[in-house]
Amino acid sequence: MKCISLQFKAPYAVDFVDAPVSEPAEDMLLVRTRMSAISAGTEMLVYRGQVPGELALDPSISALTGRFAYPVKYGYALVGQVETAGNRIDPKWVGRTVFAFHPHETLFAAGQDEVIPIPESISAENALFLPNMETAVNFIMDARPMIGEQVIVFGQGIVGQLTTALLSRFPLKNLVTLDRYAFRREKSLQAGAGVSLDPNDAEAGNRIKRLLANNSPDATADLIFELSGNPAALDQAIELAGYNSRIVIGSWYGTRKAALNLGGAYHRNRIQLISSQVSTLAPELLGRWSKARRFECAWEMIRQVQPAELITQRFKFADAANAFDLLDRQPENALQIVLNYDEGKDGQP
Questions:
Q1: Per-residue model confidence (pLDDT) at position 260
Q2: What is the CATH number assigned to the segment(s) 132-284?
Q3: Other CB atoms closer than 10 Å to residue 170's CB: what's the count?
Q4: What letter would DSSP give residue 286?
């Protein structure tokens, strides 16, 4: 048996490497990959070389060891089937469809605690959205939306779309989203946004203020999510934020800097900038919440939202370079890209 892995060799360059795979150790599972999802956020920063090379990949995920230095394997949304199990593992694991926070590769060994059985009520394609849905759930938990609030979401990529879908279930006064691509704005409206605007439109800010002014004396937002990945959006968010409002920053900018105007309304308005990252839970929740409980919440939201509808392209694993190129060069035409691994037993095209 052999494993074929996708590797980022240098900025804008991906390749495949292969290695032999042994039978799993007595306490391990051997998982054959069926499909994986490309992250248009963090993963594209890796693809473009916009991540600090000295930074650890992700200390909370055992499959992502090492640092963001080329060559590197990366990826964290994979669905596979347990092919064999070590003799200390319950044989009922064999044949199970599981989710794993794992890089793009055809075959891998993992411990029981490194894979998550997918509920029977959830399809494999919907299960690929578990990391992004967990992230959206985490944003909501950190933001704590209130009844009647005026809410703005910058960015309608996958995480933005899912966050909008969850927010639409709250009794908000207004839910406004912004994204520079018309296709994503259309999807955002379908997800439940009341209005979706282009942030590059010179009149977007004034349109939002007029909308909010119909319901608030100062035409400002109570809660804003910055999920666009664009550092300039954070400054726009501050301009629209009201007194003692919250701005949840879910974007990771990598090596890019955010130039903020903190000399104006920000200081006097006591605006709260909240860093939200899914690897951990907010300290004040740890007494009652665990990662397992949050996963259960994310699975339930996946059942309700059915995010597989957001898949725009499917590529063979062997054509992954074309998938990354499309997402980089034509982001207006792509939302979620999935890699399929059905080329053969050994992953060869």
A1: 84
A2: 3.40.50.720
A3: 15
A4: T
Decide: 95 and 85 in contact? Cβ < 8 Å: no
Which pTM value belongs to this model?
Answer: 0.92
Q: Calculate the dihedral angle through the C-alpha atoms of 305, 310, 316, 322, rounding to the nearest 10 degrees.
A: -150
Which tokens hold the place of 208?
Answer: 């939002």
Exposed/middle/buried for 45, CB within 10 Å: 0-12, 13-18, 19+?
buried
- C-beta of residue 77 within 8 angstroms of C-beta of residue 131: yes
- pLDDT averaged over the chain? 91
Strand partners for 67: 56
User: In the numeric block, which tokens belong to residue 6?
Assistant: 């996708």
For residues 136 and 300, give the distance between their C-alpha atoms in angstroms, rounded to a whole number: 13
Residues whose CB falls within 8 Å of the CB of residue 186, separated by 6 or more in sequence, listed in order? 196
Backbone φ and ψ for 85, nearest 5 degrees, come out as: -140, 150
- Asked whether the predicted pLDDT for residue 345 surpasses 60, the reply is no
Using DSSP bridges, classify how beta strands 241-249 and 221-226 pair: parallel, antiparallel or unpaired.
parallel
Q: Taking Cα atoms as reference points, which of 179, 57, 78, 177 lies closest to residue 129?
A: 78
SS3 192: coil
Residue 349 has a pLDDT of: 38
Q: Are 105 and 5 in contact (CB under 8 A)?
A: yes
Cβ pair 46, 345 in contact under 8 A? no
Rounded Cα distance, 174 and 169, in Å: 12
DSSP 289: -
Give me 306's structure tokens. 């059915």
Pick the CATH number of 2-118+306-340 from 3.90.1150.10, 3.40.50.300, 3.90.180.10, 3.30.70.1340: 3.90.180.10
341 vs 309: CA distance, rounded Å: 20
Q: Domain locations in the chain?
A: 2-118+306-340, 132-284
What are the two backbone dihedrals, phi and then psi, of residue 345, each rounded to the nearest 5 degrees? -55, -40
pLDDT in tens, 97-137: 999 999 999 999 999 999 999 999 999 999 999 999 999 99
CA-CA distance, 161 to 15, in Å (whole number)? 30
